[in-house]
Design goal:
With 388 residues, the protein is an alpha+beta fold. Helix content is 43%, strand content 22%. β5 and β6 form a beta hairpin.
């Protein structure tokens, strides 16, 4: 049985999330900015039609397109809605590979019998369900490999939201696809391939493996296989832990208020610890970052004797290293917390206490449950003097 893979891609995801919670933004030119409002990272269809480019500096966009609406990114909101989308996708397929905050691969192989419909119609049902039950639009590409599914998802954005490249259509699709449109081929690789007369995806598939290997190495041969319908990269729901977790945000106003900045770092630590616990991880290195009004970055970190996933322990470390980088006379624009050296280790060190670990585990679990039920910020976050 040949594999059948779907790529679900949320359309203009950050903008769609903002429109979901604020319907007055629908059918308007809306842009979402990156951290520190540096550049445009998401645009509504109307903003694209105005001519606003992805990655355009916000100050330039505002000057050239003042009629558009510019919003600071809200990663908490986007993360929550992403979780809802991914949860819903897992109701359709037992194997879902979350590729990014707004993309996921689904293994649909063999599901035609269960749903009693072809793969194209299954994809239509998925798209309809996500829109109706989560509230954001998605585009879905379906094919026999990840690379072809990615190509199909891009074509779906220009079609009716769902596009399938069947085995018989592969050759014709690749003949009309520029090599630059293929997933994994960047500007430099495109220029290299163009230099040797390779301008379409189809032309890449008819070159012998020896030549491809010289040009692109092993990845090039794997790409050729994927483009010809032979799956090299199967969909996998195996969890790969991240190397680090980072939580940052800009201040509402530039500030040098020490208390305000400390509180922002404590809040980031809480968000990062929640993410650690949700993934069964602990951190052995805690770092903090302050970015000045002039974009100069100050950073300090500390290694822990015992890995942790608990806010009060992380905040105690922040309290110790904060004076190393905070300068009262400087005005700051943003702050952040970075957890590194992540581990699943649960073994206690000689310096740890079984009773203390039990206490922190129970408290953090109760904290998470309360926030899940009543929302973030329901508990005032303050480190007790005698807790640690």
């Amino acid at each position: 049985m040949s594999p059948e893979i779907a790529l679900v891609d949320c359309d203009s995801f950050f903008v769609s999330c903002e429109q979901l919670v604020n319907p007055s933004l629908l059918n308007k030119p809306v842009c979402v900015a990156s951290n520190n409002d540096g550049c445009v990272v998401a645009r509504s269809k109307e903003a694209k039609q105005l001519g606003i480019k992805m990655g355009m500096p916000v100050f330039m966009a505002k000057k050239e397109f003042p009629q558009a609406i510019y919003l600071s990114g809200n990663m908490n909101l986007y993360g929550d809605i992403s979780d809802r989308v991914m949860t819903k996708l897992k109701e359709f397929s037992p194997v879902v590979e979350v590729y990014s905050i707004d993309e996921a691969f689904l293994d649909l192989t063999g599901l035609r019998r269960m749903y009693r419909k072809d793969y194209f119609k299954i994809a239509i049902d998925i798209r309809k369900t996500i829109k109706e039950e989560v509230g954001v639009p998605v585009s879905i590409g379906v094919s026999s490999t990840k690379v072809l599914a990615k190509l199909a998802s891009e074509k779906a954005k220009k079609a009716d939201g769902v596009y399938r490249i069947g085995f018989r259509e592969i050759t014709e699709e690749l003949k009309k696809t520029d090599i630059a449109e293929i997933w994994g081929i960047g500007k430099n690789t495109t220029a290299l391939l163009n230099k040797y007369g390779i301008r379409t995806a189809y032309q890449l598939t008819i070159i012998d493996d020896t030549r491809i290997s010289k040009l692109l190495g092993k990845k090039g041969i794997e790409l050729k296989q994927e483009l010809t319908g032979n799956s090299i990269y199967p969909v996998s729901d195996k969890y790969v832990p991240p190397k680090s977790i980072q939580k940052t945000s800009s201040f509402a106003k530039f500030t040098s208020d020490e208390s305000y900045i400390r509180n922002s770092l404590n809040y980031h630590a809480h968000r990062a610890c929640r993410k650690l616990r949700s993934r069964g991880l602990k951190t052995k290195t805690i770092g903090i970052m302050l970015r000045t009004k002039d974009f100069k970055v100050y950073y300090q970190k500390s290694q822990l004797i015992q890995p942790t996933d608990f806010e009060f322990e992380a905040q105690e470390v922040i309290k110790i290293i904060f004076p190393d980088i905070f300068i009262p006379d400087i005005i700051y624009r943003s702050s952040g917390v970075i957890f590194e050296d992540l581990t699943e280790q649960t073994q206690l060190s000689l310096f740890s206490s079984v009773q203390q670990n039990f206490k922190t585990s129970k408290l953090s679990s109760a904290w998470d449950k309360l926030e899940d039920k009543y929302g973030r910020g329901i508990i005032f976050n303050s480190v007790p003097n005698n807790f640690i």
